[in-house]
Amino acid sequence: MSKKKKTIEELLEEALVPKEEQTYEVPENWVYFKFTSIFDVQGGTQPPKSQFVDEEREGYVRLVQIRDFSSDKYKTYIPNTQKLRKMKEEDILIARYGASIGRILTGLSGAYNVALAKVVYPKGKVDKKFLFWLLKSEHFQIPLMGISRSAQSGFNKNDLSYFKMPLPPLNEQKRIAEKVERLLSKIEEAKQLIEEAKETFELRRAAILDKAFRGELTRKWRGENADITTANEWIEQINLLKEGTKTKYKDQLDSSILEKLYKLPKEWKWVHLNDLIEASTYGTSAKTNDDVTGTPVLRMGNIVDGYLELNNLKYLPNNHEDVLKYDLQTNDLLFNRTNSYELVGKTSVITEDVSERFTFASYLIRVRLFYKDFLASYVSHYINSHVGRKILLSMVTQQVGQANINSQKLASLPIPLPSQEEVMEITNWLNNYRELESKQKEMILVEENIEALKQSILSKAFRGELGTNDPGEESAIELLKEVLQEQVK
What we know:
- This protein is of the alpha+beta class.
- It has two domains: 8-186 and 450-488, Adenine-n6-DNA-methyltransferase TaqI, Chain A, domain 2, CATH 3.90.220.20; 229-418, DNA methylase specificity domains (Adenine-n6-DNA-methyltransferase TaqI, Chain A, domain 2), CATH 3.90.220.
- Helix content is 36%, strand content 17%.
- The protein is built from 15 helices and 24 strands.
- The strands form eight sheets. Strands 2-9-6-7 form a four-stranded antiparallel beta sheet.
- Helix 3 (128-136) crosses helix 5 (170-212).
- The chain is elongated.
């Protein structure tokens, strides 16, 4: 006995979301419907890998996978059979698995695999571009992420059956899609300008630091201050202070690096960092906690781009012996000795607001210099520059997932040393430049909010808040009825 078809009234009752259950308030001529009342999703097929080839052949079709929407680098082809699920370029697909779950994809043709699901929708009643952006919006993405099944097992049509979606009249769908694309295009243009500005900042910084540590930035200054002391004279003063202190570290620098070091002005001198060090030590390895009444412990993640970022802190009890043992003073340096290859060696100066209130962890080295009020910022700028890092990274010991520079290698780092007066001049110049750069970067911090801005536009679009709706247009419920009528036939 065949199953009795439901009437249009029954289908409409099942499809509509009661006003009190609607996610957001929408214009009067819109309706809320349940996703699967008018949409379907069709999962792909997964042929055996033994059939895969990496070049086009007669009788073969491209197998479209999630990665193919980002790159054509791994094109795969399979025998073309009737069993395959096919897609056209204009079709909309949803990624079903893993980290990509919820990605909305379009623009390729071929047979699609099981990691993708094609959205089947009533053409002529639902605008394709409207649907594409609706699926990218919070109306679809938030409930999708909330599905209780694991991301690896994906989703099916039944999982989507309770998703509540807004439906405007057809002309309003088209206006929404057009405005969304226009606004998002402007955001993308802004993002590109931001990226270009960031690249300009990096290139300009690299050029200035290069000139600073070659003596070119202060060439005119030296010509106007001929009576300054030389670096050799300053080192002699430091050596007098070093008498009776700990023996210097053994030089561990690759001699070939020394041979490649650039030529300095005659008043300058290549020295090892150890020539300037009063004391250095690793930090505490004691177990920390989250008790904010204790003493905060600086860790490697707190050193970012030459600055200290005081977040995600851990603590030691105030009376812990390591709090006094590993104290910090203004103009101490903290050096990141263990991290990824890209981050190892990052260094920051301890500022007055941090000293006497913090201690530091064992993956950091505290370096206390002679004449630290003059030298700390200069040495930090140098170590963080591409000039200093190029030499520093040649001294790295790499292990699984980590890079390391011990205190002896750090002490061997070559430093281009000017006179005391010129160090002050260079440091003031670089500090002023960083302050100016920071202010400029504040103007482009909108980059961090771009994704939020995109979602805000999509959110407004599908709540009817973009100013495109015409309240005089026929209600979308008539459109919904037309779609459901096809199911009654």
